[in-house]
Amino acid sequence: MKVSAVIMAAGQSKRMKSARPKVLHTLLGKPLIEYALDVVNSISDKKPVVILGHGAEEVKKMIGDRALFALQNEQLGTADAVNSARSLLESTTDLVVVISADMPLLRAETIQYLVEIQKNNSGPISMLTLVSPDSRGFGRVVRSLSGEVVGIVEEKVAAVGQLVINELNASIYCFKSDWLWKNLQKVNKSVVGEYYLTDLVGIAADQGFKVQAVRIEDPEEAMGINTRVHLAEAEAILRRRVNTEWMLNGVTMLDPTRVYIEKDVTIGKDTILFPDTYLKGKTSIADGCEIGPNTLISDTQIGNHCHIQMAVMENAIIEDGVSMGPFVHLRPGAHLAKGVHMGNFGEVKNSYLGPGVKMGHFSYIGDATIGENVNISAGVITCNFDGKKKNRTEIGANAFIGSDTMLRAPLKIGEGAYTGAGSVVTHDVAPHEVVAGVPARPLKSKKNDTSTLEK
């Protein structure tokens, strides 16, 4: 059977009190609509139809070509919203799954199960329900004396006696496509001026069909986001799920409630995450690392057996065996090769530090290429900006840069060269040459001299 999906994303959500469309508010680093797209992709190879309304252009721009779009010009209810997808789906699919874009905790396995139930259902509708003392605005499931589902009553039009019903409609359905399009036109306007998709349940029951209700085992899956309070509650649940999964896969967290891991992050076994560690974007961490505490890492690749504490890193590459911190900053384009060590309060931007480089504390390396086994002493700065453009610094292998050296780019320091402490280097330095002073001048060659200016 061909299965298609409709994602309801047209609501204004005034309770969010935001100029941004509700479905673009983020949860664990991803907009709400992304979770809905991920779920429906598990049941169909066809692009879903997203029903747009408030903030249509913003939502459409974010989704791009991952979906088809239908516009609900007026907010006339859920039945009207689904009907706006008719021209895109009628006669092209066997089953239509309808979900809301503001239910990020819904699992793909739950939707897959619902679809399988409907494939074996002689009736036209299968739906998800839950039992909860907190209605959160959901409609009540009305059953006959024999236990058959005969209707759904929306909370805002429910009678007092119906409000005590604790079986709730999760607003997630799987319809037989041909029946859906034939019967949507039979839905009448409610007393509040909206056309409710839930009325299709009563229509099906009146026609003698069995409506299949599937109970959600975990009521958290049905949590909808209507306020920022709900958003925070859902984030806490999702964080717990993500962290639990990583711990079960070999990652240690000393305090899971103080570790933040976004959905696209990957972590190797035997890695330890200390409190107040934030892993964001497409960050990947290999095996046996120690990360944190107080560390923020975004879109960064980290190799095996790295030790990182009190650091901020973004769009960087860190190879195996790197150690750094505390209080270091890797900006975009930083690449630390195998065995690099960074002292505290160091910063690297758009630079490559070769294998075995030692970078002392209070140093800044920007727009530079550093050869292997270079020693960068404390307080070294690459002066990469001349007021108009950024210039590069190149330092050859085994060079020694003395404390508080200023390297005015563009500049090349040759292999095995030395700079004295406090030097201001304004011209290229030849291999094995020793320079010192302000401005730095040649003293002698180190090629055949094993003494050092500074250790």
Structural description of this entry:
- By secondary structure, the chain is an alpha/beta fold.
- The protein has two domains: 3-219, Spore Coat Polysaccharide Biosynthesis Protein SpsA, Chain A; 228-445, 3 Solenoid (UDP N-Acetylglucosamine Acyltransferase, domain 1).
- It has nine helices and 42 strands.
- The strands form seven sheets. A twelve-stranded mixed β-sheet has the order 12-15-18-21-24-27-30-33-36-39-41-42, covered by helices on one side.
- It starts with a strand and ends in a 10-residue tail after the last strand.
- The model is unreliable at 450-455 (pLDDT under 50).
The average pLDDT value, as a whole number, equals: 93
- Low-pLDDT sequence parts: 450-455
Spatial sequence of strands, sheet with the most strands: 12-15-18-21-24-27-30-33-36-39-41-42
CATH superfamily of the largest domain: Hexapeptide repeat proteins
User: What is the architecture of the largest domain at the second tier of CATH?
Assistant: 3 Solenoid
* Strand segment tally: 42
* Total number of domains: 2
Reading off the top of the CATH hierarchy, the class of the largest domain is best stated as: Mainly Beta
First CA to last CA: what distance?
74 Å
- From the alpha-carbon coordinates, what is the Rg to the nearest angstrom? 30 Å
As a percent range, the share of strand residues is 25-35%
Alpha-beta content class: alpha/beta
CATH domain topology of the largest domain: UDP N-Acetylglucosamine Acyltransferase, domain 1
Global shape = elongated
Give the helix proportion (percent range): 10-25%
